[in-house]
Amino acid sequence: MRAVVMRSFGEPAVLSVEQASIPTPSPGDVLVRVGAVEVSPTRDVATRIGTHPFSAKISLPHVLGGDFAGVVADVGFGVDRALIGRRVAVRGARYCRSCSACHAGLDHQCADVRMLGIDLWGSYAEYVCAPAENLHPFPDTIDMVEAAALAATGPIALAQWYSAGLKAGSTVLITGITGALATTLATLAVALGARVIGLSRRPEAVPATLGVVTLDSGRDDLTDALTEVAGENGLTAVIDNVADPATFDRYFRALAPGAQVVISGAISSTQLPVLRVPALALYLRSITLQGIRTASNSVVRDFWEKVNENKFRLPSSVIHEGKLDSAAQVHAEITAGRTVGHRVLRVSEDDR
Question: What does the pLDDT look like over 35-66, one tens digit per residue?
């Protein structure tokens, strides 16, 4: 099979397409022919450079790539063979099932989770093995590229929605609105009836099809601008996928009493930022501040139920397709900051 192999850390050129052996599924696992996989700025690009905390977990040579979409090609012992041929989204986490978090049903807080593309060879390849419990079927009406984008960002977006206590009529601010996760969250929030304000250093790059009001995150009068745009009820919540201290200082002053602030995505930085939290205002205005690392299995299942019920779809304007052998080029474009939304590698042409 073909795979994008990384034999050293460094520039995008360290990624090259090579031949590798097709893996054999272990008991409880399935073998999936990869249809498409999203290129993640954190899991893939930052890790490839070699300075990210994820990089220290990698043994070279290595194959990047996390959650993906594909077709079940074979099954291991104990797995229903009726799965063969099913189109599935695949979660790329293997939980230990023995730590206290796993025993408590908090799998997303597993102390010894092994991640596809980090601890294990990933999905920049034509075939990958995964636990059968990690499969989520999706409709034939959804292309593999869109399914891969949804698999990579949808569950965490829904986890953010739940954690922020959002509902129809809420006004939510989303930072880094040009990012893959942010565009998925914005699409989900609009579909569920929320009003979305986005922040970006490139507001002109945000497609109108996203349905959000976008402000320049670098403007000096950001607090006043947010207060005006949010209206008399103020900001119900903030989903912060950037955790930039200066931006945090400005939007914090525009929060409504009882607002929720959810921090995600800060791990994309090689050195995590430190936010200056005004404790008195936090107390007097009953503001909640929390961090979300990933989604639980129950949220993942809930997300794919919403997709299968046709609750929302990603606009094509935020999904950009490339081929497996263009992985190095896509990494370079992401590093240069020229992308909006999702960059997805189509691995198999047979699954269109």
Answer: 999 999 888 999 999 988 889 999 999 999 99
For residues 33 and 23, give the distance between their C-alpha atoms in angstroms, rounded to a whole number.
Answer: 11
- The token duo for 121 is 């060879």
Query: Residues near 352 by Cβ (< 8 Å), separated by ≥ 6?
Result: 143, 144
Judged on CB neighbours under 10 Å (0-12, 13-18, 19+), 61 is: middle
User: What CATH number belongs to 155-291?
Assistant: 3.40.50.720
* Region 170-190 average pLDDT: 95
User: How would residue 265 be classed by pLDDT, with cut points 50, 70 and 90?
Assistant: low
Which token pair is 134? 């990690």
Contact 226, 209 (CB under 8 A): no
Give residue limits of the domains in the chain: 2-153+295-351, 155-291
Distance between CA atoms of 140 and 132, rounded to whole angstroms?
A: 20
Give me the CATH topology for the region 2-153+295-351: Quinone Oxidoreductase; Chain A, domain 1 (3.90.180)
Q: Encode pLDDT of 111-145 as tens digits.
A: 888 999 999 999 999 999 999 999 999 999 999 99
Pure H helices in 32-84: 47-49
- Rounded to 5°, angle at Cα 111 from 108 and 113: 65
Predicted pLDDT of residue 108: 78
Report how far Cα 116 is from the mean position of its chain's Cα atoms.
14
